[in-house]
Design brief:
Blueprint (H helix, E strand, L loop, with lengths): L1 H6 L12 H6 L4 E8 L6 H17 L3 E2 L2 E9 L1 E2 L4 E2 L1 H13 L3 E5 L4 H13 L3 E4 L29 E3 L4 H14 L4 E6 L3 H17 L2 E7 L8 H9 L4 E5 L6 H10 L5 E4 L6 H7 L8 E6 L9 H13 L7 H18 L4 H9 L4 E3 L2 E3 L12 E7 L2 E8 L2
Parallel strand pairs: 1-3, 1-6, 6-7, 7-8, 9-10, 9-11, 11-12, 12-13
Antiparallel strand pairs: 2-3, 4-5, 13-16, 14-15, 16-17
Helix pairs in contact: 3-12, 4-5, 6-7, 8-9, 9-10, 12-13
């Protein structure tokens, strides 16, 4: 029975209880690529440029690789109830991807907490996952997170998760070093209690202590709070000359900035890459950010990209008639990695495509020439520090060039 033979076709590995019609679908000449990103809420501006970058990469190969036609699906992992990524939605997306035998790659996630949910589900199906934005170290680096990380995300024992952005162990150190160079003596550290936010805040804290900067406070906030005036009054009483927030625009960074100013505190404000978006400036108001706010970000700011990166920047502006947000280039690069894996594998096979990326070395990417290490991390270490001036992100320092 040819239908029964197809049920055991290698591409169906990890997909249980398949019907004959689904098995036939796995033999088609269509390869699906999906992304799982927050498309509801204020992160939408950032994720839209990520999706635009992905589409640009697929368009550049004419939507085909070899005999295969590429189909891209843009999935939302946010919910209206939360206004940002939702654990239940992310889990459903990952399970949906595993069950569709035409899906060969999963681009995502934006939030590290979402990655934590999707990674083990996709890993068991040998489905390639390439993140354009996750920076929490414990997702890939042994000894950099909780005791069971990253093994808990790899139930198969093999690596299927790769990221094209530098992790927060680098970002936290760069932020602390910049604070030191600014002459900061005392810092009050806040975080949003989420995996990414607390993770980068912890690295920043350790780095500050090593550099001799006094940590006068360390607290998690309620991201849903209407305001933080009492907290900022407390911050002001410590004479901290900087407030560091480990979190994102979606976890209320803008309100923190507004309330810091409203209580008359003179402290500078520093945030990580999860806040490097126009939505931060819109939510806080530029007058509450100008000349006191610093942002760290993995890689170069879009307008400072060189070579192929500059080509991407110019093409993006021409195609969409807008400035790309910071992560657009990473969406583009993540998609190019996926396309390279499909090309190298030469067949519609999840395990083969993932294996092709495992061996990716000296990739001539839009971010420069780079490789994946044994953990699935990029060899790129470039970080940027920017200051908000006149309501715009203005580069002040590039580290690791």
């Amino acid at each position: 029975n040819p239908c029964m033979k197809r049920l055991f076709f290698p591409l169906c590995l990890g997909v249980l209880a398949m019907t004959c019609s689904v098995a036939f679908a796995a033999d088609s000449q269509v390869i699906k690529i999906v992304s799982s990103l927050p498309r509801t809420g204020s992160a939408n501006a950032q994720s839209t440029t990520l999706v635009n970058g992905i589409r640009m990469a697929i368009d550049e190969v004419g939507g085909k690789i070899g005999d295969y036609t590429l189909a891209y699906e843009d999935w939302d992992d946010a919910s209206p109830e939360r206004g940002q990524w939702d654990p239940a939605v992310e889990a459903a997306n990952a399970q949906k991807a595993v069950k569709d035998p035409d899906i060969m790659a999963y681009i995502g996630t934006y939030n590290s907490g979402a990655a934590k949910i999707a990674m083990p589900i996709l890993n068991q199906a040998a489905l390639l996952m390439v993140s354009p934005a996750n920076t929490y170290p414990g997702l890939t680096k042994p000894g950099m997170g909780e005791a069971n990380e990253p093994a808990v995300y790899r139930p198969s024992g093999k690596i299927n998760f790769f990221r094209v952005v530098p992790a927060d162990d680098i970002q936290g150190e760069v932020a602390a070093q910049w604070a030191k160079e600014l002459g900061i003596k005392k810092v009050f550290i806040l975080h949003d209690r989420e995996l990414y936010g607390k993770g980068v805040a912890d690295v920043f804290k350790r780095s500050c202590i090593k550099l001799g900067i006094t940590v006068v406070g360390y607290e998690g906030i309620d991201p849903k709070a209407a305001n933080y005036r009492s907290l900022m009054t407390k911050v002001k009483s410590t004479d901290a000359d900087m407030v560091y927030f480990g979190g994102t625009t979606q976890t209320n960074a803008g309100q923190l900035a507004k309330d810091l100013v409203s209580v008359g505190a003179r402290a500078k404000f520093m945030v990580p890459d999860g806040c490097r978006e126009q939505a931060l400036i819109e939510s806080a108001g530029k007058d509450n950010l100008d000349d006191r706010t610093y942002v760290t970000f993995g890689g170069l700011p879009p307008s400072q990209l060189k070579g192929r990166g500059r080509e991407f920047y110019d093409n993006y502006k021409k195609k969409y008639n807008a400035e790309p947000e910071a992560y657009a280039v990473y969406g583009y690069e993540a998609a190019r990695v996926v396309l390279e894996g499909i090309k190298r594998a030469g067949k519609k096979d999840r395990a083969a495509i993932t294996e092709a990326i495992t061996n990716l070395r000296d990739f001539d990417g839009v971010l420069g020439k780079w490789s994946f290490d044994q953990n699935g991390d990029t060899s790129l270490k470039v970080m940027a520090v920017e200051e908000i001036k006149d309501g715009k992100f203005t580069p002040v320092k590039i580290v690791g060039m």
